[in-house]
Amino acid sequence: MDRILYEGKSKIIYEGEDENSYIIRFKDTATAFNGVKKEEIPEKGRLNAEISNLLYEYLEENGIKTHLIKVIDETTILVRKAEIVMVEVIIRNLAAGSFSKKYGVPEGTPLANTVVEFSLKSDELGDPMINDSQITALKIATAEELKEMSEQAKKINELLSGLFLKAGIILVDFKLEFGRAGKEIILCDEISPDSCRFWDANTKEKLDKDRFRRDLGNVTEGYKEVLRRLKDVIGV
C-alpha cells in the first residue's frame, strides 16, 4: 500500500495510482460520541465498503457524480482526488437522534417536509450545526456550492429512499460529504450504516450504527441484513 495521507475514525486514505486519485481503506473500528466510545467490530469495514460501493454505483447510474473510480478489494477503493468541502449535509425524513432530542419530537415522527441541515466538519469542535450565511461568511463554501450540494442531496435522498423502501427499509436520515474535483462538486466519503439511520419498515428495528451507539447488540448482523436486502433489490 502507498504512503498514508490521513487516518480517520473509520477509514485510512493513501496516495493513489496517480496525482488525481486516492486509495481509501475501510476499517473495522466503530466510534461514537466524537470518539468517546470506541470498539473494533468484526467485518464492519468490509460491510460498509460493499454497501457504499453498491450505492455509489447505483447513484452513478442515475446521474450522480461520485468519487468512486473502482473497487480494489473488499475493503479498499480507488477514488478521484477532491478537495473536501468542510461541511456535512444532513438529510432527515423522520425525526430521530439529535433532532428528536433538540426539538422534543418523538423518534419516528414523520416530518412535513424533508429537512436539510449543515454541520461543520470538525471533530475538535464536535461537528456543530452551521447555517448557510455562517458557511459563506467563513468562506467554507460559496452560496452556489451550497445550492448544488443541497440539490444533489435531495436527489440522492429521493433515489435511495425509493431503493431502500423496496428492500423493506426506511431511510430515516443520513449525512453526505461533497468535494471539489476541478469545477465539479462530487459526492465523496461513504453511504453506509455508519452514516445513515436504517429502520426495518415493519418492525422499526434499527439496522445501523445506533446498534453500537445505544448498546443494542448484534451490530454486524444489522449491517449484514442491510447488505443482504440491498443485493436482493439491486439484483447482485
Q: What's the β-strand tally?
A: 13
Estimate the global geometry from the Cα principal axes. Answer: globular
Please, how many helices? 6
Question: Residue-averaged pLDDT, rounded?
Answer: 96
Number of domains: 2
The CATH H-level homologous superfamily of the largest domain: ATP-grasp fold, B domain
Poorly predicted segments: none
> What is the N-to-C succession of helices and strands?
EEEEEHEEEEHEHHEEEHH
Q: What is the CATH class designation of the largest domain?
A: Alpha Beta
Can you walk through the features of this model?
The strands form 3 sheets. Strands 8, 9, 10, 11, 12 and 13 form a 6-stranded antiparallel β-sheet that branches. A 5-stranded antiparallel β-sheet has the order 1-2-3-7-6. It has a two-stranded antiparallel sheet with strand order 4-5. The longest helix is centred in the middle third of the chain and has 24 residues, at 143-166. With 236 residues, the protein is of the alpha+beta class. It has 2 domains: 4-80, 2-Layer Sandwich (Phosphorylase Kinase, domain 1); 83-218, ATP-grasp fold, B domain (D-amino Acid Aminotransferase, Chain A, domain 1, 2-Layer Sandwich). The protein has helices spanning 44-61, 97-103, 132-137, 143-166, 210-213, 219-234, and strands at 4-7, 11-15, 21-26, 29-32, 37-40, 68-73, 76-80, 83-84, 87-94, 110-120, 169-181, 184-188, 196-200. The protein is built from 6 helices and 13 strands. It is an enzyme of class 6 (ligase). It holds the Pfam family SAICAR_synt. It catalyses: 5-amino-1-(5-phospho-D-ribosyl)imidazole-4-carboxylate + L-aspartate + ATP = (2S)-2-[5-amino-1-(5-phospho-beta-D-ribosyl)imidazole-4-carboxamido]succinate + ADP + phosphate + 2 H(+). Its EC number is 6.3.2.6. InterPro entries: SAICAR_synt/ADE2_N, SAICAR_synt_PurC, SAICAR_synth, SAICAR_synthetase, SAICAR_synthetase_CS.
